[in-house]
Amino acid sequence: MEAGQSSPQTFTSIDENELFWQRLVEEDQAAEAQARTGAVAESESPAAKAAGEEELTFEEAVADLSAAVTAMPRLREMYLKLLEFCQVRRSLEEAEREIEGYPEFPHGAQPPYRLIRTMVDHGGLEWIELSEDGTVVTPEDKAGLTDDEADDLVAGFAVLTTVVGEQVREDLAPERRLESLFEEQPHRTEAYLDVMDFCRTPRAYQEVCDLLQGRDVLSLARNADGQLLQPSFFVDMLERSGGLVWKGGWKVTKQGEALLSCMVKASA
Asked: Hey, which of 151, 165, 177, 260 would disulfide with 161, CB 3.0 to 4.6 Å?
């Protein structure tokens, strides 16, 4: 092969990845359209109360943040990773750099600051103002100051996961989502585990197809439209549940690998 020429396998991997993220974008657009259509019906929802600055109960705050985290599939895992990363107070710059390193980030179509502010606006992160020496600027520090004087006190910002953010992070943790997937579809669990184990090394979609080819789980099962299941179903469900991520190929997540190891030990 001549220098600078990509292999067919490379093109295949890129196409598979782009199609996957394109589908997530389409789902996001559909979700946004549905949200606009149901705006009137949602006027008494936790999100509406939050927008109106009414105090939410803890349960309402968790529901509001959960809805924000899961509203757009292509952003979901980044939000959850951010909530985990900020369990320790992080500077705004640290949080932005962390997001830029996520494998999902190139497909998110959102700058890191916007993702952070979304979590702040929905109560998942606390927004902390810092003085020049790194101490927290409190409302008491600003009392009696003009707006300009108050602004001069602030030299930087930090974020910290709130109790609501921690609850949502736990509720939507990949381990929990994967366990729920296996409980809901026990007849497919073996195939899911095989795909995760196979993807300890990044794999192209065609390799996953070859792994599942000829299995009863494909030939005997049908989707909601009555069509035979395709290997893409297993990749999609594992990605949605936090078990697979695209890293130059489909690869098991660290949480998925840990759960896989525990299940293998338990069955030994």
From this structure: 165
Token pair of 214 as six digits: 């000829």
User: Which H, E and C letters describe 115-173, residue by residue?
Assistant: HHHHHHHCCCEEEEEECCCCCECCHHHHCCCCHHHHHHHCCEEEEEECHHHHHHHHHCC
Q: How many whole angstroms separate alpha carbon 89 and alpha carbon 23?
A: 35
Residues whose CB is less than 8 angstroms from the CB of residue 129 and which lie 6 or more positions away in sequence, other chains included:
136, 137, 153, 154, 156, 157
Cα gap 242→43, rounded to integer Å = 32
CA–CA distance from 3 to each of 6, 7, 9, 183 (Å)?
9, 11, 16, 49
Question: What's the residue count for the chain?
Answer: 268
Among candidate residues 217, 222, 173, 208, the one with its CA nearest the CA of residue 20: 208
Place of tokens 């609501």: 164
Alpha-carbon Rg for the chain, nearest whole angstrom, is: 22
pTM of structure:
0.76
254-267 helix and 174-184 helix, angle to the nearest 10 degrees: 50
